[in-house]
Amino acid sequence: MIRFLHAADLHLDRPFEGLTRLPESLHERAARSTFIALHRLVDAALHERADFLLISGDLFDNSHRSIKAQHAFVKEMRRLQSALIPVYLVYGNHDFVNETWNQLGLPDNVHVFPETPGCFTLTCANGQVVHVYGFSYHQKWVKENMAAQYRKSGTADFHIALLHGEEKSGIDDGHYAPFTLTDLETAGFDYWALGHIHKRQQLPVSVPAWYPGDLQGLSFKDSELGLKGASVVHLTEHHAEVRFLPTSDIEWIHADRCFGQIETADQLTESLRAFKEDEREKHHGVFVRLNSTFEQNGLPQQTLEKLFREVIETLNEDEEQHSDFVWLELGTFDVHGDWNIEEIMNSPHFAGDLFRLIEQPDSVDEAAAMLYSHHLGRRFLPPLSSEDQQQIRHASEQLLADVLLKETQNGSIDNEA
After folding, report:
1. 149 and 213: one domain?
2. 409 pLDDT band (50/70/90 cuts)?
3. Does the keyword Signal apply (predicted)?
4. Do residue 301 and residue 188 come from a single domain?
5. What is the pLDDT, as a whole number, of residue 118?
6. Cα separation, 244 vs 16, whole angstroms
7. Do 292 and 377 sit in the same domain of this protein?
8. Domain span at residue 293?
9. Are 185 and 305 within one domain?
10. Strands 251-260, 286-295: pairing kind
11. What is the pLDDT of residue 415?
12. In this structure, are 171 and 157 located in the same domain?
């Protein structure tokens, strides 16, 4: 049996995204979070007495890696060197090697794969021989199927492959060493140590093939949410036991909360404070994008949303002193009115005309066409999903209902001009 740690996508010193008004102490902690995650990874390797550590690409966040990030990595690798734990790594699309003038030297226990698939051999403390295979990116895009070029060589007890890449999709061949599941199945390796996908997952093949996910989330993107970490792998001739190892210092999450019908600012403040304390019991530092739902209380949606923002900002001011902070960011904001969309759609009221226009299948695409026709829009804006479009429709209808509709006590539409 051999025991090793598998990590990927460390993105050391990468700026976090989506937060602009953090107090200095929380900003500094978020900026340190990738380094804390690396330190915890090395702590675990020492505690587990790992035979070796694998890093499957994107150790740094760009090819012009910062000296700060390199220094932190070298320092941690020397801790492993003192414990006689070797490290095998590949560079990926974010830290590809195209210049050497700005690179610090690595300790002798760190082995970096070249641009073409290669193999390193190590002998573990129990005498078992392991062959480790991999390649490093030399540019941002590698469109070749590199997995198909991996070949087992020589005699070893275990053959392990590192690969920073993605499964081929049916749309195009891909830019990041695209492979097929058949490539992984038929290559004959005992474990595929994958990187590039930030969401932890095992691929549906008979051989163990894992993406451990990134060590530390850095935004509210779906792939960055929740507890992050690496894998502890126990590998025998017939079995692989893969255990999740949490390393993240801060979590990023989405949360949905229905606040019902809020009548006063005090009531809203207490509801939010109770929500934050519930989250504090679950996490040791968390950024929360809060998707909120309210029942109509007579206030226009814009007025209620403004009050909600003010309460969130006020409660956030107290978080700087907490190591287990709960920092709230406003996500979607929805007010359920007692107006009936079918009744409005069937009415001759001006609002009915607008609602019918909004509910047209192409209405959101047409409204956003000018934005996406701009070169910056095409570059930076992701496509709108069907869920995004429905949220836009509903928010638009709620704003119209606040402004245009006068309702009678029984909820029917007053059709007076």
Report:
1. yes
2. very low
3. no
4. no
5. 96
6. 24
7. no
8. 252-331
9. no
10. parallel
11. 44
12. yes
Q: What is the pTM of this model?
A: 0.83
What pLDDT, on a 0 to 100 scale, did the predictor assign at position 405? Answer: 61
Domains held by the chain: number? 3
Joined tokens for residue 204: 């549906």
